[in-house]
Amino acid sequence: MSHSHGNASSANDPRQPSMAKPYTPRPVAPEDLPVDYSGFIAVILGVTGVMFRYKICSWLAIIFCAQSLANMRNLENDLKQISMAMMFAIMGLVTNYLGPNRPATKK
Amino acid sequence: MNPSVSIFSIALIAFLCLHHRVHGSSHFEGFDAEDDDVFDDSTELHHSLRPPLVTQSESTTLDLEPPSESDYTPTSKSDPPSQTASKKPSSISFDFWDEDEFEGLPEDDKTTDSPVISENTSPADPQTPDPESASDALDSAIPKKKPSYTVEIVCVSILIAYAINYFTGKRENENLALTWASKFGLKDTIFEKNFSLLGVGEGEDSPLLLKEATNVFKFYASGRRYCHGLLATMELKSRHDLISRLFNSVVPCKDEISFEVYMNDDAMDHIVFAMARKKAAKTMLKELRDLQRFGGLVPVPFGRKWVSEELAVISESKEVAGDMITEVVLDQVFGDKSFEKFGKNFLSLHFSDQHPGKHRKMLLFKFALPDAKHMDDMVRLVALIPYYIDLVGRYRLSSQARNKTEGARQKAAHEAYKELENVRQEALLRKKAERKKILEEAEAKLSAEALRKKEAKERARQMKKSMPKVKMSRGH
């Protein structure tokens, strides 16, 4: 640190308490936030899982839901998408495991 | 977790509705199919006596479903609904057949006795080739074939690993951020000596760090000469996220910390200066607008100590570059020898009085964060920050250089103004065109109406004209 106070004028205290301004968080527009790809993938996989009754899709949707949940920044904004994806994923799983075996899957 | 419970309940309700619908519809589907089957069987029977066997095997091996659901319908009146016929399709289907025509079949004696017995025997029925298709109808309690579990096991274990990794990774990131903060933000540390206010809150013991996401931390400092604030943003690896972690093991990335120093307007002269490794410098020159506009790569000057060969310097003029790269800096970090030792965590620095956005005069520093044990490695790098704040704050361009930069800035401002004007004009023109279009449309509508009216009038007149003539002709 000695190098930063090379000459005499900078040897005195650089601090100026009177100039201190408290931190004001910059407002971030929702569209500036990084895109939640995992949530998007989760929704798509969830819908595919329900529509075509692929249980692997529903499971992957749940995993991507977890990722999206872990990376969540803006609570209200992302929760909508996540809850939708989660609903689709769970619905897909429930229909898959508890639903009747339809003949359509055979043919 | 209230929302999750509600989500689950909604999903459950949705499933129940769906389930009922599907179940009901399958009834009818099966019923129709069964009718056809029976009809086919009977027609075949007319041809010969033996076919029953053939049809039997066909119905059981080729397609299990239609008979199963069809059987459900005839027996449903007598059987309670809990006795699902879909469990044992083949056996009950025999039951249905033998009443009609196939009494003489020797093999079916067991199965034709009664539906209850047939249900008991059917699991061991050799004629059901695919136990999975027969059993996974309604209750998941019936054990399935082994391979069908692999997906579930893998997925559930991934989820569990994800959850564990989330908590451990989160703690790892927090530890790293806290180590940094305690190294540089506590008493008798670099920031404490240079700034009067530390931390994101107000008051004496405000928290030093602001956690913006699981892997983003902010540190704020203020109250120093020449600048009105410093904001450090730590963007750590997504350690909490298993998927990105796996991805990062293929494509490695670093923990980064970037400092934004907001300079006072009167404390920073016309300076556009940046330094980074050669490759990064090229992309900076391409992508950052102020560098693109004002800066250029500075060649290595003769007869002067200069920065390490790995680094490239971008500046508006040689003068600024020469004044920003002082002996002290070369000695501490950027010289050939010291850069080898201390420069591995250096990413870039970028000073400009022309930053786009709210704060135009800003110093940006970007470093890589070492891991918690090697935090000392970046002491010299962080010490650059107050040094450069003082250097830039005190720095004044020579009048000659100032004229040049002044001209360039005026030109840029003029261009920006022009651009703005252009945009405004374009918007105005567009508005005008739109208004004109609307007017024209209205006019066209009006004129069409007028035309129609005119035509109607004309027609009426013609009618009037022709009427008397006819009358007259009649009168004659």
From TrEMBL, chain A:
Residues 1-27 are annotated as: Disordered. Keywords: Membrane, Transmembrane, Transmembrane helix. One of its GO terms (cellular component) is endoplasmic reticulum membrane. GO terms for molecular function: protein folding chaperone. It comes from the Eukaryota. Its main location: membrane. The keyword Cytoplasm does not apply. The chain crosses the membrane at residues 40-70, 82-99. One of its GO terms (biological process) is protein insertion into ER membrane. Belongs to the Asterix family. This is Protein Asterix. It comes from Arabis nemorensis.
Automatic annotation (TrEMBL), chain B:
Residues 462-476 have a biased composition (Basic residues). Residues 1-24 form the signal peptide. One of its GO terms (cellular component) is endoplasmic reticulum. One of its GO terms (molecular function) is calcium ion binding. Keywords: Signal. GO terms for biological process: endoplasmic reticulum calcium ion homeostasis. Residues 47-90, 103-141, 452-476 are annotated as: Disordered. Residues 452-461 have a biased composition (Basic and acidic residues). It comes from the Eukaryota. Residues 70-90, 113-125 have a biased composition (Polar residues). This is DUF1682 domain-containing protein.
